[in-house]
Amino acid sequence: MVELMAEEGHIGLSNEKKEEATSENFRLALSFLKKDRYTGYFVIHAYSNTYDLSPYMQRSNVGRPSRWKGNFLEKIGFTHFQECNILGGECYFKVIHSIELDRANVSMLERMRENEIVYGRFRKFASQIGDIYKKMREVDQMLTDVGFDLPREKLELAPIDIGKENVEKVYPKGYVYDFYKDMLDIVKEAKNEVIITDNWVDEELINLYLEKIPENVKIRLLTRKPQGTFIPVAKKFKAKPTVDFEARTSNDWHDRWVFVDNECWVTGQSVRDAGMKPTYLVKLNGYDILKSCFDEAWKKATTIV
């Protein structure tokens, strides 16, 4: 992993502003710095011209009263830069993510998802920076008043993990294999139970997904019209000693949900066709409510396997 804090956030082959925002007297921007032909960095730039004459934590470095003991942006790990080519003046910057530009094994879809996470982090930080500052200043004021200084150590960044962070996946037309790999990665992590609701299933669901689920994990499938040789293949699958599998049919269910232990995902297309047209895979909140909806439908459904 690249040591991000040691990197200069402005100097390289190019530095392009991607987004900007203003929030609670702060100016912010996200840029992409192409350091060289091999490496690029996403950088957050921030600054504020607002200050007061108290001895407490300031937003930025403007004013510099004699009793001043540091500023908020430094406290959270940003570094001062005098001539920022993104904000057009002074800034405090922090490199938040690095990209290996010459990696041949990264698909366009993976790169898109990586970018979505970075942009999402920037937008969330920009929307919350004022509240973060107010809370840290309140703590700083309380400590200062009793003779303590807020620690000056820089806060560390949590690394971006695409697989864990990206709970909203979008697939352009033709990315059938990418959907398959992502769905397979989800169901293979099951420890207790996998539930799939999909009105149009065939034996491919068993061959590509269900047989890859760990042994002795309970599997339930709710469908409407099983296709092709699904039923005879499903019966053979269920006969395996290490398989706990049941399939039922219902005309009262439409959505395509995948439950894995205590998580629930929804997909825009039937699992067997996903990716042939643009689609998505999104993790849903409210597991208990969603699971109760499924349980009601399951009770009324007809067992076929």
Name its key features.
single chain, 305 residues, alpha+beta, 2 domains, 8-stranded mixed sheet, disordered N terminus
Task: Describe the model.
This protein has 305 residues and is α+β, with helices and mostly antiparallel strands. It has 2 domains: 161 residues, no CATH class; 137 residues, Endonuclease, Chain A, CATH 3.30.870.10. It is 29% helix and 28% strand. It contains 7 helices and 13 strands. The strands form 2 sheets. Strands 6-12-11-10-7-8-9-13 form an 8-stranded mixed beta sheet, with helices on both faces. Strands 1-2-3-5-4 form a 5-stranded antiparallel beta sheet, with helices on one face. Strand 8, helix 6 and strand 9 form a beta-alpha-beta unit. The radius of gyration is 26 Å and the shape is elongated. The N terminus is likely disordered.
- Overall, the morphology is elongated
Number of domain modules:
2
Number of strands: 13
Q: Evaluate the radius of gyration.
A: 26 Å
Q: Kindly state the percentage of residues in helix.
A: 25-40%
Topology:
Layout: E1 14-23, E2 26-34, E3 39-47, H1 72-75, E4 79-84, E5 89-100, H2 108-145, H3 162-165, E6 168-171, H4 176-187, E7 193-197, H5 203-208, E8 218-223, H6 230-238, E9 244-249, E10 257-260, E11 263-267, E12 279-284, H7 287-300, E13 302-303
Parallel strand pairs: 7-8, 8-9
Antiparallel strand pairs: 1-2, 2-3, 3-5, 4-5, 6-12, 7-10, 9-13, 10-11, 11-12
